[in-house]
Amino acid sequence: MVLSAPLLLSGCGYNEFQNLDEQVNASWSEVLSQYQRRSDLIPNIVNTVKGEANFEQETLTRVVEARAKATSIQVTPELAKDPEALKRFQAAQGELSGALSRLLAVSEAYPTLQSNQGFRDLRVQLEGTENRITVARNRYIKSVQEYNGLTRRFPTNFTAKVFGYEVKPNFTVQNEAAISAPPTVNFDKPATTAPNAGSTAAPAATPATPASSPLSLPAPGAAPASR
């Protein structure tokens, strides 16, 4: 029985559970490491931007507040096992990503800031970190998918029940509500008013772009590769 025990455990998927569980833990650690790397960059970015005269204070405030919210979440080994806690963690990191995107977009309107070598270097580091975050998240998602598949498959699902291996929560689509909403299509044409007889119709004026319109910035995952 002693000699046959290793063969039985191997055949029921026990060893595979050990390997995949370690893989999930390692992938999760990499996700946290890259998020921490981004968090460490933010104070330097904020301090550099503060040196720019008349920079939008609201944009800076949002970045600082979003970072504080993201770092206030206590990261423990149990966080990745709790679906609600993981969802809150993801939401906080997503909010920080949005605030940073807005800051970089607004900075385009400040030529002196764009010519600042220190700011340019920080921006490259931030873009590289966003890429690393995307890669780390994808690896974690794949690791959890493989682990959960083993947990649910027959006959290894019996091993999972015996040894208490439960399905792990995974990252979700951050803008799930937005992409699940059907697009609004409007084919209505604006009514045109015929000009009075004997009068010359003035050419239609091109609407001006409001000064307060938000600038567009690609999603963090689409940022150029790190140098």
Q: What's this, in brief?
A:
With 227 residues, the chain is mainly alpha-helical. It has helices spanning 5-11, 14-50, 57-72, 83-107, 111-114, 117-152, 156-163, 176-180.
Structure commentary:
The structure is a single chain. The longest helix has 37 residues, at 14-50. The protein starts with a helix and ends in a 47-residue tail after the last helix. Helix 2 packs antiparallel against helix 3 and helix 3 packs antiparallel against helix 4. It has helices spanning 5-11, 14-50, 57-72, 83-107, 111-114, 117-152, 156-163, 176-180. The model is unreliable at 1-9, 176-187 and 189-227 (pLDDT under 50). It is built from 8 helices and no strands. The protein is 61% helix and 0% strand. It is an all-alpha fold and 227 residues long.
Task: Give descriptors for this structure.
227 residues; elongated; single chain; mainly alpha; disordered C terminus; 61% helix
Low-confidence spans:
1-9, 176-187, 189-227
Mean residue pLDDT: 80
Distance between the termini: 57 Å
Give the proportion of residues in helices.
55-70%
Report the total helices.
8
Tertiary shape: elongated
Radius of gyration: 26 Å
The profile of the biggest β sheet is: none
The topology string of helices and strands comes to HHHHHHHH
Strand fraction band? Answer: under 5%
